[in-house]
Specification:
Chain B: Keywords: Lyase. The complex is a heterodimer of chains A (401) and B (120). Chain A is of the alpha/beta class. Chain A has 15 helices and 14 strands. Chain A folds into 2 domains: 115 residues, Rossmann fold, CATH 3.40.50; 237 residues. Helix content of chain A is 38%, strand content 18%. In chain A, helix 3 links the parallel strand 5 and strand 6. In chain A, the strands form 3 sheets. A 7-stranded parallel beta sheet of chain A has the order 10-11-9-8-12-13-14, sandwiched between helices. The longest helix of chain A has 22 residues. In chain A, 61% of the residues are buried. Chain B has one domain: Archaeosine Trna-guanine Transglycosylase, Chain: A, domain 4, CATH 2.30.130.110. In chain B, 10% of the residues lie in helices and 29% in strands. Chain B has 1 helix and 11 strands. In chain B, the strands form 4 sheets. In chain B, strands 1-2-5-8 form a 4-stranded antiparallel beta sheet. Chain B has a 3-stranded antiparallel beta sheet with strand order 6-7-9, with no helix packed on it. Chain B has a two-stranded antiparallel sheet with strand order 3-4. Chain B is globular, with a radius of gyration of 14 Å. Chain B starts with 9 loop residues before the first helix and ends with a strand. Classes of the chains: A alpha/beta (401), B mainly beta (120). Chains A and B meet through helix 7, helix 8, helix 9 and helix 10 of A and helix 1, strand 7, strand 9 and strand 10 of B.
């Protein structure tokens, strides 16, 4: 089934959007980069960045993966000049992928105004080159990578929105798509049933190891992946939240455990292990939901299904976010931000299957170019921090790209 | 896997007919093994809550998404939802009681509100 007129990239990937990434490489270059995006005044020019001055292997690998994401057609790097980020290495990786890239170094360009001017001109040139080389190709479901995440969970999430996403995942996987669910720290307590779904004994042991590592890590940090809003919404413990989060994964076999920046090749379901190696080095694994969305994107996710009970409003740079709430009160209050009303399941007005169908249909529509609510509202959140995590997880996975 | 009994995804199969059948009740029971039910809307003290055959009076005001005890849960016993343990009772819990941070805790790691932490 052809689902979109996709953007073919030089590296063989196919995108559902055609984004120019404007990337600041240290907080000191953030203002210039943000002004460039503002002045570009284009829904497909997005701001990405890394705040730290010290180099970090993970951040460099992540930025390479994001700047060469299927939805990204070109990039403009904004560097202060003296920071530790390997701007030459990042630019080389982007160029090698066949994408146009330019770099503006503020200390060389002459300061704030001249850098903004130079970077806006660079964005125009990159866009010009993207237009010249534009190649549209039919995109099939087997070309699509879909991630899922829950945020602002409550007592309805595990009953309505999450299992409905599980139904949609089953359908997407059966049609040949790659689906990724995540946060090993939010699967603590579900390791037993998850391991029984592993496609091989190696993957089962990788799941067990990843969850064990997550528990050790979060215990050392003193907090589980549990926010006060979860408690206000009726969730009492991390394992209760986990059980509800886990049902997003649907029912298909788990094909592999991947780490950030690993892009699966074979269709099927993957667990993304986002918890750093122990002992803890740079703090919490992911300080907020968007850090997880960014990691899903680094594994190739073209779009993300975001379930929320309390009512999150976020979207994302690079890859559209579709928001689904299982709480009818949240939908009534915040309908302007919600793409799918799974609260109808709580009220007995819809079933998991029908809402799962609605989600599946919306995935196809958004892949085909229809904007999600968060895209229409201009949400382009992005956050990337320090992390210490090996590129390859505890077990290899089949068909790596 | 502290006291793990079943795959929580199975609740989806239970919840589906359960949700339809319970459309008239303010609460739903996700799995027959559960000793708590979930409020499908805000519940007021004294309301009669039909839960899979039992009828229990609510002993507290409970918001949508929160848990209410179906049965007596002695202090130290497992609280079971989705057919799987989601923590342990820290006080005796009567049928109809609100079940939350004040009377249960995690068997894995602490929970917290903005004001305080509930140790595991």
């Amino acid at each position: 089934m052809i689902i979109a007129n996709g953007y073919a990239r030089g590296d063989g990937r196919i995108g559902i959007r055609n984004v120019v990434a404007v990337i600041y490489l240290v907080e000191c270059a953030h203002h210039v980069a943000r002004r460039v995006v503002d002045l570009a005044d284009d829904a497909e020019v997005h701001l990405l960045g890394f705040p730290g001055c010290y180099p970090n292997d993970y951040a460099l690998r992540m930025m390479k993966a994001l700047a060469t994401h299927a939805n990204v057609g070109g990039a403009v790097l904004v560097s202060l000049g003296c920071e530790g980020f390997d701007r030459e290495g990042l630019a080389a990786a982007i160029a090698q992928s066949g994408r146009p890239v330019e770099t503006v170094v503020i200390q060389q360009a002459g300061g704030t105004r001249s850098s903004i001017e130079a970077a806006v001109a660079a964005v125009r040139r990159v866009q010009q080159e993207m237009r010249q080389d534009e190649r549209r190709v039919p995109m099939r479901l087997s070309d699509l990578v879909v991630g899922t995440i829950c945020g602002g969970s409550d007592g309805t999430s595990g009953i309505a929105a999450n299992p409905a996403v599980g139904r949609a995942f089953d359908r997407l996987i059966d049609a040949g798509a790659i689906c990724i669910f995540e946060e090993t720290g939010e699967m603590i307590g579900c390791e037993g049933p998850m391991a029984t779904r592993a496609a091989s004994p190696e993957i089962a042991s990788a799941i067990d190891q990843a969850i064990g590592n997550a528990e050790t890590y979060y215990r050392a940090m003193g907090y589980g992946s549990f926010a006060p809003g979860n408690a206000e919404g009726g969730l009492s413990t991390l394992e209760e939240k986990s059980a509800g989060a886990y049902v997003k994964s649907g029912s298909r076999p788990i094909n592999g455990v991947i780490r950030p920046t690993q892009i699966p090749g074979d269709p099927g379901l993957y667990l993304l292990d986002v918890v750093p190696d122990t002992p803890p080095k740079f703090g919490f694994p992911n300080i907020s939901d968007n850090a997880e969305i960014v990691e899903l994107m680094s594994c190739g996710a073209h779009l993300t299904l975001f379930t929320t009970g309390r009512g999150s409003v976020v979207g994302s740079a690079v890859a559209p976010v579709i928001k689904i709430t299982g709480n009818p009160e949240t939908f009534a209050r915040m309908g302007e931000d919600m793409d799918i009303d799974a609260g109808r399941i709580m009220l007995g007005d819809a079933t998991l299957d029908t809402v799962g169908e609605d989600i599946f249909d919306l995935v196809l529509a958004v892949a085909g170019g229809a904007p999600s609510k968060s895209e229409t509202l201009g949400h382009r959140e992005f956050i990337l921090g320090y992390k210490s995590i090996e590129a390859v997880g505890p077990a290899c996975f089949p068909g790596a790209r | 896997m502290r006291g793990f009994t079943k795959d929580p995804r199975d609740d989806a199969a239970v919840a589906r007919p359960g949700l339809a059948a319970a459309a008239g009740s303010p609460v739903i029971v996700l799995d027959t093994a559960d000793n708590v039910a979930v409020c499908r809307r805000n519940v007021a003290t004294g309301e009669a809550l039909a839960m899979d055959g039992d009828v229990v009076a609510a002993r507290a005001d409970m918001p949508l998404g929160h848990k209410v005890a179906r049965a007596f849960i002695p202090a130290g016993a497992l609280v079971v939802k989705y057919g799987m343990p989601i923590g342990s009772a820290t006080a005796d819990i009567e049928p109809g009681d609100w079940v939350h941070l004040h009377n249960m805790r995690s068997n894995y790691i602490s929970s917290h509100t903005r004001a305080s932490a509930v140790p595991a």
